[in-house]
Amino acid sequence: MSGAHALWDERLPFPQRESLRYPEGTVDVVVHRAGADGYGFLHDAAIVQHKGDLFAAWYNCPGGEIEEESLIRGRTSLDGGRSWSQPEVVASDARGEGIFYVPVALLSHEGILYAYVSNMVRTS
What we know:
Blueprint: E1 41-50, E2 53-61, E3 71-77, E4 88-91, E5 99-109, E6 112-121
Antiparallel strand pairs: 1-2, 2-3, 3-4, 5-6
């Protein structure tokens, strides 16, 4: 692939796995653990930096995937990921119409934070 959106300059050799390193200061943190608060299924997490803060979101179900309810929840970090807010609901079937909210994609663009959320409707 070439052009403005190429992920890798094809003229350069791809580095060997053993030589790859995390960027300086990178740490792993758990933002939310499935089952910690009544939602045993957690999938398709997304995270974005927006105006200096971190926003993470994922889809949750109480039991298995797309069982009972399926909603998007998220947390915010104001300190670079060292601590996180309590989980909040981003999208849910508040009116009980049988809507399942599934993977979320986050985008920070020109000062606006967008959450793109797919949804499906229960047919049975």
